[in-house]
Amino acid sequence: MGCSIWRIRHNFGHLKAQSKVSFFFTMIIIFTYLFYCLTGICDPLPRLVNERQTLTSANKHNALGSFRDRLDSPTSSPQHQPSAQSHQNRTSTGLPEEKKRTIPYEGGKALPPMPYAVKAREDGVDGISVFNNFGTKKFPQAIIIGVKKGGTRALLEFLRIHPDVRAVGTEPHFFDRFYERGLQWYRNLMPRTLDGQITMEKTPSYFVTKEAPGRVFTMSRSTKLIVVVRDPVTRAISDYTQTLSKNPGLPTFQYLAFKNFSSGLIDTSWSAVRIGIYAKHLENWLQYFPLSSLLFVSGERLVTDPAGEIGRVQDFLDLKRVISDKHFYFNQTKGFPCLKKPEGSSHPRCLGKSKGRPHPHIPEEVLLRLRDFYRPFNLKFYQMTGQDFGWD
Ligand SMILES: Nc1ncnc2c1ncn2[C@@H]1O[C@H](COP(=O)(O)OS(=O)(=O)O)[C@@H](OP(=O)(O)O)[C@H]1O
């Protein structure tokens, strides 16, 4: 009897001790969870895409690799989705539907959607940087809206060394591809900023998207808009070079650029040609924004005098002129200016290999015809902007 009472007591005592231990562990878990929530770590996943991550020494190496990829990745977006050009009746390579049908051509393969976490590892990590939970996510006050192949990546990476500029590394494509996801989705992509800091993003396709001006205006009519423009002929060749690098079976530049070469009729349905008609696209933006809301950066001067162009941009953004000549050096091998100390790194760095790559040879006659085609549009553009870009 005495023995069984002792056994019962012993069992209950054992249970008591067990429940104390489990209570203790439950409290630890709750406190740990609360601590992480308060420090912001349990935010929803999209944050990973944009926020700078704390890097352990083990993943710093990978992150640097990703940083290079990011600089190298012209069309990186929060998720690869094959919808950007569908409204333009194009394949993902920018080929007109008609030409796509009539030529043997392997292209237009859309990348499958990627989960956020994977994309975050690929291009959301800004080299070695600090885990930043301070500040708030705001809509961008300034957007680099174009133009594709104008030098938009160089401009953004140069600007990012300014302590008062925080920018999304990837191209959000909100105002052209993902508008239906809503403004809160968009804002959540933004990095956190402190008072006095500017939030920025760049998506070069906005400039040629009919709906983009109205949509940006709806977000904020005081948004500052930056357009990096480049000689439309060189820009078209650069665009073609990019498509060719992904699809080596692509027809020649001249085949795509002309409806009929002998008649000299230019095919304006080809996006590589159409994007360069800057005056036409600018008209859409001026329906919503005054000229003073736009800054036109010369893609050519961004290469020959990066500090000078960045100086103009800093003034336009009401930023202190922090970025100057001393931040750049000219890399002879690359043939382009590079940063002595990019954001988040103490090592000099150039943009990736897809930026500043050699172009294929285009016959002189083709170039002359294209120059003739663009001349009136260029003059109109100079008139509209009050700037002579010297392309003729
Ligand atoms: N500093 C520096 N380093 C490398 N490249 C530079 C630089 N400044 C401007 N450029 C020019 O940028 C061109 C690519 O433009 P984008 O970045 O706007 O391209 S994209 O639309 O994002 O794909 C790219 O075009 P390509 O020369 O045809 O490759 C470059 O000429």
From TrEMBL:
Topology with respect to the bilayer: Single-pass type II membrane protein
Coiled-coil positions: none
Enzyme class, broadest EC rank: transferase
Renumbered residue ranges of the record's region Disordered: 66-106
Localisation: Endomembrane system; Golgi apparatus membrane
Disulfide bridge map: 338-350
Family: Belongs to the sulfotransferase 1 family.
Protein name as annotated: Sulfotransferase
Lineage start: Eukaryota, Metazoa, Chordata, Craniata, Vertebrata
